[in-house]
């Protein structure tokens, strides 16, 4: 998803992070393209704070990073063959831009890029986890959960209906993006991630994604109480971001209602993998998602 032309193009036109320069590396074997890698020069290269917790020596310094912070699945095709050349090109580009650091964010531990970086003698440091589960049918998904989690989801759906909640899925052009933006910004601020979804550009960015994005709106008596912007690729459904207002009438969880509808929508769209994003580990583990460890590899230029 994060390497689709629509996503990369949207991020250049309306970046969600302050980007000082864009770099796109393309490796060719003759006329055949064997690898691509976007990278972004960021002066404030730590929007989720975690990078400087694991790389304190880079605090306050700009970095040329692949990929963006809004991508939690960095990879490079054909890594074993081309990684040394890409690393050399990345280091030279960072030096040209007078940047002291370059590297990779959110590399899944054990995947092809992770193994190639390790084979090159580059140590990785753990950043965070993303959460994933497989899907077939909704009933099979429920059956895979523990008794308590399964009962809670069903109870929450019943209580939300009793409280007058309606849930609607729609393409981005039909969504109330101004309302959704405010809710996502407010929710991010609750977790001290102010600025992670900048209100001035968030709606434009989501609109630019076109048919790759799907929106879920959860309303109670017309008021937006939860919303999710979900992204899709060939096999995966990404619950990319959401906003939730917990000041609701009735004994139900708007987030729980949004999550259940996300699973249903993924199944309706024929996606076999649900990508639950980062954070909220306790909820995701309880609801059948498994962690994928994400590492960072920073190099001093």
List keywords for this structure.
about 300 residues, alpha+beta, Aminopeptidase, 11-stranded mixed β-sheet, 11 strands, about 35% helix, about 30% strand, globular
Q: Can you lay out the helices and strands and say which pair or pack?
A:
Elements: H1 5-13, E1 21-29, E2 32-42, H2 50-54, E3 63-66, H3 79-96, E4 101-108, H4 112-119, E5 125-134, H5 138-143, H6 147-162, E6 165-171, H7 177-190, H8 199-208, E7 213-220, E8 223-232, E9 236-244, H9 254-268, E10 273-278, H10 281-286, E11 290-300
Parallel strand pairs: 3-4, 9-10
Antiparallel strand pairs: 1-2, 2-3, 4-11, 5-10, 5-11, 6-7, 7-8, 8-9
Explained architecture:
Helices cover 36% and strands 31% of the residues. It has ten helices and eleven strands. The longest helix has 18 residues, at 79-96. The protein has an eleven-stranded mixed β-sheet with strand order 1-2-3-4-11-5-10-9-8-7-6. The mean pLDDT is 92. The protein has helices at residues 5-13, 50-54, 79-96, 112-119, 138-143, 147-162, 177-190, 199-208, 254-268, 281-286; strands at residues 21-29, 32-42, 63-66, 101-108, 125-134, 165-171, 213-220, 223-232, 236-244, 273-278, 290-300. The protein has two domains: 5-130 and 293-300, Aminopeptidase (3-Layer(aba) Sandwich), CATH 3.40.630; 136-271, Gcn5-related N-acetyltransferase (GNAT) (Aminopeptidase, 3-Layer(aba) Sandwich). With 301 residues, the chain is α+β, with helices and mostly antiparallel strands.
């Amino acid at each position: 998803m994060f390497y689709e032309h629509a996503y990369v193009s949207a991020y250049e036109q309306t970046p969600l992070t302050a980007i000082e320069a864009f770099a796109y590396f393309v490796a060719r074997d003759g006329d055949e393209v064997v690898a691509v890698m976007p990278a972004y020069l960021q002066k404030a290269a730590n929007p989720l704070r975690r990078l400087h917790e694991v790389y304190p020596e880079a605090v306050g310094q700009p970095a040329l990073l692949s990929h963006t912070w809004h991508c939690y699945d960095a990879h490079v095709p054909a890594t074993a063959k081309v990684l040394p050349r890409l690393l050399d090109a990345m280091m030279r580009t960072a030096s040209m831009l007078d940047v002291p650091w370059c590297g990779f964010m959110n590399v899944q531990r054990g995947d092809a890029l992770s193994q190639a970086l390790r084979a090159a003698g580059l140590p990785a440091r753990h950043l965070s986890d993303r959460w994933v589960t497989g899907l077939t049918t909704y009933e099979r998904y429920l059956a895979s959960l523990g008794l308590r989690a399964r009962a809670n989801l069903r109870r929450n759906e019943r209580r939300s209906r009793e409280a007058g909640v309606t849930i609607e899925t729609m393409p981005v052009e039909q969504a109330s993006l101004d309302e959704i933006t405010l809710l996502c910004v407010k929710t991010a601020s609750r977790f001290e991630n102010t600025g992670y979804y900048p209100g001035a550009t968030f709606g434009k960015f989501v609109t630019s994604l076109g048919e790759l994005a799907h929106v879920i709106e959860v309303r109670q008596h017309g008021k937006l109480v939860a919303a999710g912007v979900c992204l899709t690729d060939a096999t995966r459904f990404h619950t990319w971001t959401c906003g939730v207002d917990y000041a609701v009438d009735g004994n139900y969880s708007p987030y729980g209602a949004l999550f259940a509808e996300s699973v249903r929508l993924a199944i309706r769209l024929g996606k076999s993998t649900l990508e639950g994003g980062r954070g909220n580990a306790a909820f995701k583990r309880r609801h059948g998602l498994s962690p994928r460890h994400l590492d960072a590899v920073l190099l001093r230029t």
